[in-house]
Amino acid sequence: MTLLQVMPDDAPQTVLLRTTDAPTIAGTLAGHGVELRHWPVRGPVTPQDDSAEVLERYRAQVDELCGREGMKVVDVARLHPSTDPGWAEQAAKARSTFLEEHRHAENEVRFFAHGRGCFYLHLEEKVYATVCEAGDLLSVPAGTRHWFDMGTRPDFVAIRFFEEEDGWVGDFTCDPLARAFPSLDALVAVPPQPAAP
Ligand SMILES: CSCCC(=O)/C(O)=C/O
Ligand SMILES: [Fe+2]
Ligand code: NI
């Protein structure tokens, strides 16, 4: 389930908002220029399905988005749990790549075709932890401070959209704050609180 948890950037244990309500999530993020939309999920993705086939399933939406937003490069980032020796080490290395706060020179546009991951968006003086799941299309404005957690057991397939070949390159802020915030595993382990009457 898509989830948003908002925390002050200087008090990671203080939860200002925690919601799984899709309109509330989209509305809260839209107030900061971040778009969260949904595409219908076109079937499950298994580790055996190749990336070109996954892209082909979303061809119409991908082409429309590229035309509208001037995206020229599309790729598929993915990781699935495996019993292969060395997988845990490979997963930990992949995870650490995105765990430090960074910015990109272009919009970060990602569609989850499978699994989940959490984008932590550092907007003004708050952190918006946004857990995306299959069907979520997130668009984060260029220059937004953020980091990404794929969890200790990464399982996701994400279509990535770039304006330039090197659009994925991050400019790291060297701010260690990311380490103080709840991980993806911790965020999804907490059951949603009932709404106040
Ligand atoms: C879900 S795609 C991998 C994460 C990524 O591309 C990125 O830039 C995270 O900040
Ligand atoms: Fe990023
Ligand atoms: Ni998987």
The distinct ligands, each listed once, are: ligand L3FJYLFB, fe (ii) ion, nickel (II) ion
Q: Would you identify the CATH architecture?
A: Sandwich
Straight-line N-to-C gap: 23 Å
In total, the number of strands is: 11
Uncertain runs are none
Anisotropy-based shape? globular
Helix content: 10-25%
* Overall number of domains: 1
CATH fold annotation: Jelly Rolls
| The CATH fourth-level homologous superfamily | Jelly Rolls
**Major sheet: size, sense and barrel closure?**
9 strands, antiparallel
Mind telling me the C-alpha Rg? 16 Å
Catalytic activity: 1,2-dihydroxy-5-(methylsulfanyl)pent-1-en-3-one + O2 = 3-(methylsulfanyl)propanoate + CO + formate + 2 H(+); 1,2-dihydroxy-5-(methylsulfanyl)pent-1-en-3-one + O2 = 4-methylsulfanyl-2-oxobutanoate + formate + 2 H(+)
Family: Belongs to the acireductone dioxygenase (ARD) family.
Binding site for Ni(2+): 102, 104, 108, 146
Pathway: Amino-acid biosynthesis; L-methionine biosynthesis via salvage pathway; L-methionine from S-methyl-5-thio-alpha-D-ribose 1-phosphate: step 5/6
Could you characterize the architecture of this molecule?
With 197 residues, the chain is of the alpha+beta class. It has a single domain (3-183), classed as Sandwich (Jelly Rolls). The protein contains 5 helices and 11 strands. The strands form 2 sheets. Strands 1, 2, 3, 4, 6, 7, 8, 9 and 10 form a 9-stranded antiparallel beta sheet that branches. The relative contact order is 0.24. Nickel (II) ion binds at residues 47, 80, 114-115, 155.
Short note summarizing the structure:
The chain is α+β, with helices and mostly antiparallel strands. Helices cover 23% and strands 33% of the residues. It contains five helices and eleven strands, in the order ββαβααβαβββββββα.
